[in-house]
Amino acid sequence: MHASEGVRAAAVARSVAASLGLPADEAAVLHDSNKLTLRLLPADTLARVAPADDQVAEFEVGLARQLTEAGCPVGALDPRVEPRGYERDGFVVTLWRYYAPAADEVTPAAFAGALARLHAGMRELDVPAPRYTERVERALRFLADHARTPGLAPADRALLQETLRSTAEWIAARGAPEQLLHGEPHPGNVLATAQGPLFIDWETCCRGPAEFDLAHAPEEVGSHYPGVDAELLRHCRLLVLAVVTVWRWDREDLFPDGRRMGEEWLARIRAAAGRE
């Protein structure tokens, strides 16, 4: 969030928590992107705050409840308050249990095992979600809008368009089974806790092959996931890389050091296409 928005969002989170009987004298920022994630003390609750016109709070809360009930390795909602989104002053606040970080990092084997259990639980749920291809289509729209991605050189724009189209076509032709997915289970959305790895953040939930989720995880994780299609995973990694590279060239992107990362990722895509 922009700095001024972040200050207001933190104030709203503290106000909502206090009104629910959770004292929130302090708000420590844990993550700042399109949403603000805060640890509120002394109640020790986790608040996620999103602009009211850019949030899917009810979907996230409902899915998290179902996954928790199914025994999936997910971060739980704060049991001390009603599980829902709380709208106030242009923001929506959801409150979650805070987990103290474990001393050890999540190993690739533990990451893969937790993701496999999450996927098994998700296969049992009947939850509407967009297909992963909607991200590809959105990225292509951004590339077609030169005003939205003004910093891209013509050759790089064409390379990204070609990579997105050809890779998505290859994945579709593979015909792998599709299911409900987390959508972005990268390390930033996995908590290392005393209970083991726990997944958080459900706004990117989508449908697709399990390898699409694996493509967001560290490369070492794939070798521990049961029954993985290595060639499909390789193509999914390239597709995900192309999509996130487009976001880094969006004129409205606020990702820290995003342009440098966009340059690095473009170089990787050029190398994959043999255009170095």
UniProtKB/TrEMBL annotation:
Pfam families per record: APH
Membrane-crossing segments per the record: none
UniProt domain Aminoglycoside phosphotransferase: residue ranges: 46-217
Protein name: Aminoglycoside phosphotransferase
Organism the protein comes from: Streptomyces wadayamensis
